[in-house]
Specification:
single chain, 240 residues, alpha/beta, two-stranded antiparallel sheet
Length: 240
Amino acid sequence: MDRISDSGSDGWRSIRHGGTKSAGGRFSFFTMKSKAYVFLADGFEEIEAVAPADILRRSTKNVQLVALGDNLTVRSTHGITLVADLRIEEFLKEYEADRETPPDKTALVFPGGLPGATNLAACAPLMQLAARHFAEGGLLCAICASPGTLLPVIDGLLREEGRKGIGGRRFTCYPGCEEGPLACGALHEDSPCVTDGLLITANGPGAAMEFGYAITSALVSPPAAEVLKMGMMYTDKKKQ
């Protein structure tokens, strides 16, 4: 199943961003503009990048991998090389030029892995944009070590501008990476995936698919995420 199709039962078809029909009576899945960017730095965790990107590409048109280096190729923490769609400079220009997509329909997705998560946090232009994106109502999504490295940086940038930081926000992360967000007043939860408004976090590779579905739920719709789970034969442990 590449994307949720127009065929099938009413349960499959009715999720089209609210179940809207076109003039011809067919359900249209891509009725709401949304997009996601998955950021890749050398040393990223593969499954935490590929699983959310795959899930998101089944539910929304515009999902792009962004390389932080000068090249489109990025090497993972386990030696797997991926080819991104955009370089960071191209992403920054594209983001600033987009006047159509509302912030809450744009997800910035940060895989974990080391030193990938540290490299992401060290990219000043990306962190500045991420802080502004979050402050303006955009989705901020981080998994594994990334909540521990990124959230304190973003919190500091927000506070420098007199904006509300991440204090009071619920989050999860890989065990041992909690210190930074906790020092900012964030509230740690021992859960695979936590959604707190515009902040979506997950705790590691085993939660990569749940992370992808949580982003889909926020970016597209909760029914869209549920239909994808069914089509991808995903077992939701919470419902067992």
